[in-house]
Amino acid sequence: xxxxxxxxxxxxxxxxxxxxxxxxxxxxxxxxxxxxxxxxxxxxxxxxxxxxxxxxxxxxxxxxxxxxxxxxxxxxxxxxxxxxxxxxxxxxxxxxxxxxxxxxxxxxxxxxxxxxxxxxxxxxxxxxxxxxxxxxxxxxxxxxxxxxxxxxxxxxxxxxxxxxxxxxxxxxxxxxxxxxxxxxxxxxxxxxxxxxxxxxxxxxxxxxxxxxxxxxxxxxx
Length: 221
Description:
It is built from five helices and ten strands; from the N terminus they run αββββαβαβαββββα. By secondary structure, the protein is α+β, with helices and mostly antiparallel strands. The longest helix has 20 residues, at about 200-215.
């Protein structure tokens, strides 16, 4: 084994745990939320290359998003769990950032076998998604899951439990991931409101919005 290999693997595992595993699950009853911090995490990890199909049928790559600040989210259209709430949060951000037309929203389906272009278009239209600003991407399941896990550092996978009901076939992060105009991850927040801590969700989202505006106002590279 090469020297330095083990620490890198351990670090990668810890990052995945911290960034994604809690995404779809609410805090247990009686649990206090983490202490609020003024700044979002700023890891500056490059997202790296990808090429997927948008709901319009065109191919969208990471290079197409260069020059845009964008917010990634992860859903599937049949989801009966957190996805509708996450999509509603993104729709809210689309509205609140309407004065920044250069900001993009990029939603990745975790169930591409069922989420064909028609399903994605119907889902997008029901949420008032601007086709120029809010993109819905699909592709091969293995490819998308790898991108989410390895490039966005978020959790995703099939629900392998017995007798999984329709709408619960996948477990995935409900995080919103903020990417700058150079394609680097600059922070994240939960896209799923928590009924026990609504004030925390609002303060976290307000801080997230401030960071989006800061990055959008930064000089072009």
